[in-house]
Amino acid sequence: xxxxxxxxxxxxxxxxxxxxxxxxxxxxxxxxxxxxxxxxxxxxxxxxxxxxxxxxxxxxxxxxxxxxxxxxxxxxxxxxxxxxxxxxxxxxxxxxxxxxxxxxxxxxxxxxxxxxxxxxxxxxxxxxxxxxxxxxxxxxxxxxxxxxxxxxxxxxxxxxxxxxxxxxxxxxxxxxxxxxxxxxxxxxxxxxxxxxxx
Length: 198
Hints:
With 198 residues, the protein is mostly helical. It has helices at 26-36, 42-51, 55-60, 95-112, 134-146, 151-158, 163-170, 175-197; strands spanning 66-67, 72-73, 116-118, 121-124. It is built from eight helices and four strands. The protein starts with 25 loop residues before the first helix and ends with a helix.
């Protein structure tokens, strides 16, 4: 009680979205691919989208983790980082440099999407407030479901210790998956009926 004023009273807390992970939209996917073609961090975010790696895993990814011959990526300890800091490529991204890379990539997505800028400063965003790198991981899992990959295989792809974690994502059934599985079930029933009547 020696300080008369609270030094933290003007601090603005960052937005936090509790438990509302989602897959990216088709527009967000298209913007990601477009910007990734020329942005210095583009391949890093495309890798997240195509592998489901967590932000901390992509920050620590090393060349020794990738078996190009077998098309297998396994996160292990090694020496050279795939996605190092822009000015220090031999050092892994930390939270700050990764956030900066994302902020810059997202700003470029906004530009491509027609956002309003004044003197290179964003005036009004066109992107969803909750668009963050972790959504690429969630999208990878949703893509696994859409592609018809069994949940137990997706569990291993995602690196989940418990299949119940994967099932929380797989239960967000997209319309195409629901329709495709309904057709499969209908075809199964038709084939079964033909066997019985034959």
